[in-house]
Design brief:
Shape: elongated
Strand content: 25-35%
Distance between the termini: 103 Å
Structural class: alpha+beta
Strand order of the largest sheet: 1-2-5-8-9-10
Largest sheet: 6 strands, antiparallel
Helix content: 25-40%
């Protein structure tokens, strides 16, 4: 092998070794003028997460009419590089990223209702079209990887709903999303910036039914010797008065795997509610025995002893 070929082979080996190292080097992280934030709220068993960046008012005009000569239609004008000095940050009638930097991301772990309209579980970019008067348009778009609204494509919209803006007295310097108030099956999303708040509702149609559905999936994936998950699922269903026959099957499976004070006590209380007093007494006495052997919670043990005595008095 002559020196020319040897040199180029060595050079090739050098570049193969060095360039991957450069490719894997971490990027330098620097502060952003509009810093990243996120807010998460669980509604029942459904997680709602909003990830966004927070622009500041900074003495600027936030809302206003689009500048003269702006392109027709609702295409975004949210480009600081092309914005005239006195133009509003958010022109009415045009798509807004409703944040800064990357598109705002709205993610739900299960299907929900947005202002009463269905939105499937998934990850969406969130955009709005503010108006000078009347309701805003809230947009959920399937392209969750875009920068701002610059590549926004209306054809990729999954859902559009209307929301009525509210004028407030105090100034909110930095854009903020919040989820408040919250109920057992809903949360209100508030988009708050400057002196405007735009609320819309996220609702889980049937929290209990969804919980049972998820419980079935968890049980299907559970290990054969996992008595706890079967007991937990049965406990929720029985307390909620849902699918009691199926729940009793889960409970019996749990007891078959391992008898404990908790799962046998649950069966005793359920049998009593079903009017099966003799069976409830037998299960209750078994639970008390298990509880004493396992040093169960003294108060729970005393409560079971009291219940068994009450059941016996009815015989």
């Amino acid at each position: 092998m002559n020196s020319f070929i040897r040199f180029h082979l060595l050079l090739l080996v050098f570049f193969c070794a060095v360039f991957p190292a450069f490719a894997q080097a971490p990027a330098v992280r620097t502060p952003r003028p509009s810093q990243k934030a996120s807010v998460m709220q669980t509604i029942g068993v459904t997680d709602v997460t909003i990830t966004y960046s927070r622009p500041g008012v900074k003495g600027r005009k936030i809302w206003g009419d689009a500048p003269a000569g702006a392109a027709p239609g609702s295409a975004t004008l949210d480009d600081a590089r092309a914005r005239a000095k006195d133009a509003p940050i958010v022109p009415f009638g045009h798509v807004w990223r409703t944040g800064a930097n990357e598109a705002t991301i709205f993610e739900v772990s299960d299907g929900v209702l947005i202002n009463g309209q269905p939105l499937a579980a998934g990850r969406y970019s969130l955009h709005t079209i503010p108006t000078k008067e009347g309701e805003w348009t809230i947009i959920f778009n399937s392209d969750a990887g875009q920068w701002g609204s610059f590549s926004y494509d209306e054809k990729k919209d999954v859902l559009r709903v209307k929301a009525k803006p509210q004028m407030v007295a105090d100034n909110q310097e930095w854009l903020v999303y919040s989820l408040d108030p919250v109920t057992d099956n809903s949360a209100q999303v508030n988009i708050r910036w400057e002196k405007v708040n735009v609320p819309f509702t996220v609702e889980v149609k049937d929290v209990k039914a969804l919980t049972i559905e998820k419980a079935r999936a968890s049980l299907a994936a559970a290990k054969p010797d996992d008595w706890q998950i079967r007991s937990q699922a049965a406990n929720f269903a029985l307390q909620s008065k849902l699918n009691t026959e199926e729940a009793m099957q889960w409970l019996d499976q749990s007891i078959k795997i391992k008898e404990t004070f908790n799962n046998v006590s649950l069966k005793a209380r359920t049998l009593a509610e079903q009017g099966k007093t003799a069976e409830a007494i037998a299960a209750g006495e078994k639970a008390i025995q298990l509880g004493k052997s396992a040093n169960a919670n003294a108060r729970a043990l005393a409560d079971m002893e009291k219940l068994v005595a009450e059941w016996k008095s009815k015989m």
